[in-house]
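Exercise 7.
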Amino acid sequence: MTPGGQAQIGNVDLVKQLNSAAVYRLIDQHGPISRIQIAEQSQLAPASVTKITRQLIERGLIKEVDQQASTGGRRAISIVTETRHFHAIGVRLGRHDATLTLYDLSSKAIAEEHYALPERTQETLEHALLNAIELFIESCQRKIRELIAISVILPGLVDPESGVIRYMPHIQVENWALVEALEKRFKLTCFVGHDIRSLALAEHYFGASQDCEDSILVRVHRGTGAGIISSGRTFIGRNGNV
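Solution. The predicted structure, written as tokens, is:
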């Protein structure tokens, strides 16, 4: 296959993923919602919505619930997200410790533990952090149905696309490829992000700014930080330092 053909297939796969994500987010934010309403709000063809919802149902991410009356007189089946079957771990890395929380897909906290991390080098911190995550997973075995992701947020300069940490204020790091280390250890999809930007994104998805496409979250603690949401997306800046 030519490079052009491979790129074309890759683009098609990306569009499918984006469409599936858009449909899931609509169901998550507006459910119970019918397929007709999803098609109208997403501007996707009804046939595409039917296919996507079927795939999401088969995966266990959504489910059909009691029917609701539609404007045409027929009763349309409603769809809601199924949040209990899948879990993710969120890690907040601080100056001397880490807070690990187990969430379901509705962002409900299921369990939480704090771990001291006094390490002062990149290598020892990575080792201690990965061990803490492993201990936390073991302690939550009875509560986890299917663990699908791990996310770490922290202060500093973070490249969320590559999963590399360029700078932290309290420890010297040099292009710390944390996502690579996490995925190698746990064989899961992993993410890393700036702590305040991540809090702003959480507020956008689950909190007070759900209905706002543009918002700013300011946090005052030992220092002052802010996260900006613009057009529904985190604003990072050219060097990742906004």
